[in-house]
Every structure is written in structure tokens, then in C-alpha cells.
């Protein structure tokens, strides 16, 4: 993992993890809105962007790396940790492993039910998909699916060219096979679960399951939003949402 950060380390620290296929640049609008009040850290998950040379192993491995970073740099606890998609799965795993590592957590569009067939995809299928992501036309389609803003497409496409086949396979398998640990219920963090109203049924089902598993968590179903839509396309709305959550008394 590579860790990008803003200045003003005396501010409360917020760690935000990007979604699969993206990188820290997808969080730049949110960083700009938060940096005057928070010290914002944006890890680049292994296998992505500038960290493409470091093979992505698993969600669990990424969670352990993030915990080690928080222990080393922040004495084991930060103000908030948030993530989107596979970044949200990493946050979920971190909360499952360490119940008091953060005061607040934002889990946006985390899949916590294993996808049927994820483990049975064949190597030829992966080879085909890996070849397609290198095609500009296919990346354009993928970027729309991922709610990547048009102004960020070139960065998205450049990063798509960097990902290795091994990382792509591991990302796909880890994402599709991730399951929620029972220990998530032990977390002492205040948790906001976000899911888009127009997401797949399994994603909304995952959001509800997280909400039910974590006592006193809040579930926000973002109206008319697809996967990642609120944080990627409407950063002002996202920041208002999490700021209001932070300001609520426990």
C-alpha cells in the first residue's frame, strides 16, 4: 500500500479507501472538501495505480496492512475510516479484526455475501477480461459502470493499463468471495452504512445485513444512486452526509 496524505496532521485523521479499479485520485474532490478540517489519508490499495507493482493478495491482507499503518502512525486509533466497494470491504474487515481502531466508520457499497460462481470462473475467462480492460472502448464502458466522472476517465484508463493479471484475478476472487465475520458485531465504532437505491439486490441486501449486524449503526440508502454514485459523482452530498453523521451525539 502507498499512503497519500494532506498536511495539517494536528487535525483529526480520516482514512478513505478507493474502490476497485480506481485509486486515490477518485477521492480528490472529497479531499478538497475535507482538508481544511481533517488530516486526510488516502491509501492506494495494492495492485492499483501507483501501487500496481505490488500484487493485490486479498481483502484480509489489505486490512492487516492498514491496521499495521494505523498502529505505526497513529498509535492504533484514528477519527474515521471510510471506503467504497472493495475499499469498504477492507474497512469492514478492519472493524472485524480490531473493535476500537476508529471512532467512526463509513462503509459504502460493501459486498458481504459471496457471489455464486465467483470461484468457478475459468482462466480463459480471466484472460479475456484482462485483454478487454486494456481496450479504450471497454474501459469507457467500465468507467460508466463504476460511476467514474468523465473528467477522471484518462486517469482511470491509464491505471487500467497498469494492473497485472494476477492482481486482477485476486481482486475479483477476493471481492466476490468475501463474507462478513461475526466479530463485526463487537466493534465499538460508530458506523454509517451507505448503499445506492439503484444498486444490485445483493448489494442492498449486504447493506441491510451490515446494519443489522452492527448495533446502533445507521443505514443510508442513497436515492437514485448506483454503485459508488454518491461519493464519486456527488462529493459535496457525500461530505455533508458524513459530516452530519460525525456531528451526531453517540
3D architecture notes:
The chain is an alpha/beta fold and 250 residues long. It has a single domain (2-247), classed as Alpha/Beta hydrolase fold, catalytic domain (Rossmann fold), CATH 3.40.50. It contains ten helices and seven strands. The protein has helices spanning 28-34, 59-74, 86-97, 123-133, 136-145, 153-162, 165-177, 201-213, 229-233, 235-247; strands at residues 2-5, 13-17, 39-44, 78-84, 102-108, 190-196, 218-222. A seven-stranded mixed sheet has the order 1-3-2-4-5-6-7, sandwiched between helices. The radius of gyration is 17 Å and the shape is globular. The protein starts with a strand and ends with a helix.
- Count of discrete alpha- or pi-helical segments spanning 4 or more residues: 10
Question: Could you please say which CATH topology applies here?
Answer: Rossmann fold
- Globally, the shape reads globular
Based on CA atoms alone, the radius of gyration comes out at: 17 Å
SS-based structural class?
A: alpha/beta
Encode the helix/strand succession as letters. Answer: EEHEHEHEHHHHEHEHH
Overall structural domain count = 1
Low-confidence stretches: none
Amino acid at each position: 500500500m502507498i499512503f497519500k496524505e494532506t498536511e495539517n496532521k494536528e487535525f483529526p485523521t480520516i482514512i478513505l479507501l478507493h474502490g476497485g479499479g480506481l485509486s486515490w485520485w477518485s477521492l480528490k474532490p472529497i479531499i478538497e472538501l475535507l482538508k481544511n478540517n481533517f488530516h486526510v489519508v488516502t491509501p492506494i490499495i495494492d495492485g492499483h495505480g501507483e501501487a500496481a507493482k505490488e500484487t493485490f493478495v486479498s481483502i484480509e491482507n489489505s486490512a492487516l496492512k492498514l491496521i499495521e499503518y494505523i498502529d505505526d502512525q497513529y498509535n492504533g486509533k484514528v477519527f474515521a475510516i471510510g471506503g467504497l466497494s472493495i475499499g469498504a470491504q477492507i474497512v469492514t474487515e478492519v472493524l472485524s479484526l480490531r473493535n476500537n481502531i476508529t471512532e467512526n466508520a463509513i462503509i459504502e457499497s460493501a459486498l458481504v455475501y459471496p457471489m455464486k460462481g465467483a470461484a468457478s470462473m475459468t482462466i480463459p475467462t480471466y484472460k479475456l477480461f484482462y485483454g478487454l480492460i486494456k481496450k479504450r472502448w471497454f474501459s469507457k464502458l467500465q468507467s460508466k459502470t463504476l460511476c467514474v466522472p468523465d473528467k477522471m476517465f484518462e486517469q482511470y484508463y491509464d491505471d487500467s493499463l497498469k494492473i497485472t493479471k494476477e492482481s486482477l484475478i485476486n481482486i475479483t476472487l477476493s471481492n466476490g468471495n468475501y463474507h462478513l465475520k461475526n466479530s463485526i458485531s463487537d466493534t465499538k465504532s460508530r458506523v454509517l452504512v451507505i448503499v445506492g437505491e439503484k444498486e444490485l439486490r445483493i448489494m442492498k441486501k449486504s447493506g441491510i445485513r451490515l446494519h443489522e449486524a452492527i448495533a446502533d449503526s445507521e443505514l443510508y440508502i442513497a436515492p437514485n444512486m448506483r454503485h459508488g454514485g454518491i461519493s464519486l459523482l456527488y462529493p459535496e452530498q457525500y461530505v455533508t452526509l458524513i459530516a452530519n453523521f460525525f456531528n451526531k451525539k453517540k
